[in-house]
Amino acid sequence: MNPFDAASPFDARYYFADRAFFEKLSPFVSENAQVRYLARVEAALAETLADFGVCPRSAADEIAKAASHVTPDEVYEEERRIQHNIRALVNCIGKQVSPAAKPYVHLFATSADIMDTARALCLVDVTRTVLIPDLLALEKQLIRMARASAGTPQMGRTHGQHAVPITFGFAVALYVSRVGQRIEHIAVTAKNLRGKFAGAVGAYNALCLLSKKPADLEAALMKKLGLTPPEISTQVTQPEYIADYIYSLTACWGVFANLADDFRHLQRSEIRELRDRKASDPNTPIVGSSTMPHKVNPKDFENIKSMWKAYVPRLLTVLMDQISEHQRDLTNSASMRFVMEHVAAFAYAIHRLSQTLDAVEPDAARMRELLDAGKDPIAAEPLYVLLAMHGHPEAHEKARVLARDARIQKRPLSALLREDASLAAYLAKMSPEHLAILDDPAKYLGAAQERTISICDEWERKLRVFD
User: Fold this and answer.
1) From the CB of residue 231, how many other CB atoms can be counted at a distance below 10 Å?
2) Does this model's pTM top 0.85?
3) 153: part of which helix (H) or strand (E)?
């Protein structure tokens, strides 16, 4: 198809626009892929029936071969004729097998047995093959960035205001931890995705015509596909398995949006602590504005947040799909199909963020410049703490007033506190190291560097479980 004919801007601008990304995701998220996963479950069902002696092995082999050759075009054409997607698939497989094998196609199954199992299988595969490897690569990228700047002083900020110093590596280490925990959660929820093979209302009605232990056949089919059977189901699998999984992706995406926001603000003109390498590359003709030739906008970070805004509301749709009347209705029939687009868009967010992080670098000199320019007022916190440690009864209020007076008088706080006779006895008790911090709060870095290294070490260790 021509990507410019697509209705979805995700398809036109991102999915079809990046060939490598498209080729990596297409085997899992395309409609072609969905039909093939459905056919794969039908093949596995026939093989399981053969394992239990229900159908001849030759019949199962025929069905598996036919299932592997069925095409979305013929399935959709048959669906247009009979108005049922799974029966259309069954008919297409049945046309390609012998009369002896045909009775065993889809035997004992209801549509949701095939659809829910195929969806779980597809999500497990795309998570293992694409999402987890790409997330691990992103996590390692963040670890490298954090380690490289573990000791680079930077002004810490709260509420958009100067707070107390940190290091840039420490700021990145926060995201090492947050992304790492999300990876673990995604892996857990993907592992918990379930299929089912329990029939029209989940009570194994049809299978009980075959066996007094119908759950054994369900478990065998799930094992063949690498899935865990559900504890119990109606006609559909319990919806919380999918809801938990999509939440885990969306929560991770929220971490990306927060990181993108933080890094975008570090590129503000008045801050400029983060440089875009493209801005100084003469071979990269980046245009930041249709009218302002000087601009180079942080559009890649903005895209990551914007895409998150577009897709995070879809989590509500998944949660709404928890409700199905009695054993099943079709109110999640259309909405559940969009789960694959959610997964594809999340995969793109990983891809885009990784590329964007590669294109920026911290400006350590600019970070130090801003820290030096604004360091005097932030001596108020160590002053308050040191005064309290040495017994001052109103340490916080004293530090607050001195900081206010320093700001009004435009004088260094370090000078005012030494001119205050009421503080002389307290200052005399302080160590040279503590007094040095009051003179140069840039030394007030706490354990930022040590914690950065510790977090990086910890997550490098945790990532080994995925090797």
Assistant:
1) 7
2) yes
3) strand 153-158
